[in-house]
Known about the structure:
This protein is of the alpha/beta class. The protein has helices spanning 16-27, 48-55, 82-87, 98-103, 108-120, 133-137, 141-153, 158-161, 182-200, 202-205, 221-225, 242-250; strands at residues 4-9, 37-42, 61-65, 92-95, 124-129, 165-168, 210-213, 232-235. It contains 12 helices and 8 strands.
Amino acid sequence: MRKQIAAANWKMNLTYQDSEKLLDEILSAKIKLNDHQEVIFAVPFPYLIMCKSEVAEESGYHIAAQNCNEKKNGAFTGEISAEMIHSIGIRYCIIGHSERRAMFGETAQMLQDKVNLCLGNFITPIFCCGEPLDIRDATQQNQYVQNQIEESLFHLTPEHIETIIIAYEPIWAIGTGRSASTEQAQEMHAHIRSVLAKKYGDAVAQKISVLYGGSVKKENAYEIFSCPDVDGGLVGGASLVAPDFIEIIKALKK
Length: 254
Ligand code: PGA
């Protein structure tokens, strides 16, 4: 079975103390993960080292950065490089979240560069894609998401692409309380897999975990994660509430 992943995206929330407490509460639930299950916490930069040491003893639990810069290094005051993230032992990084594309002007080319820098530093990108509401209303979502994937990922070799994680996050479902229906999620995830299969072959496409993101809650996680092509979720708001995220982890396919 493909990796089934519950990924928390804390975004710009929580103090250091709050995040320690949240992580403690989640870990103290002692959820036993199978070999094919993983839990990833994407946390603010200043907490990466603390969070990494908190999960160090827990197998299947990992920490991710939420972004990295598209340049290798240099005079970019305030920015964080993939090499820096690698140097503190972090092995995952969210790339191309819709908030970053929209608010920080991240282009397909920048995301391609970020993906390359992550892979060059042994960091698994969690690559986000997803359409805005007007594109969904015009039923152009399949082509839109396909373009995002082609533009930022199709330069990769099969050996590289099969190591990355994709997160489909329809923008109209993020932070709105309105998640995609299971039919909408399954349809898009199957489409993403067929786009990957056409370029890289079915064997490669079958290995890539595709997470769903956008108003995943404890109430809908089980149903969404049960879709055959949905391999877990990238969770914002509900990942900040320990009992809720615990239920979401438990909803991963067994
Ligand atoms: P949400 O955010 O779960 O709060 O909708 C998901 C995300 O942006 O990754």
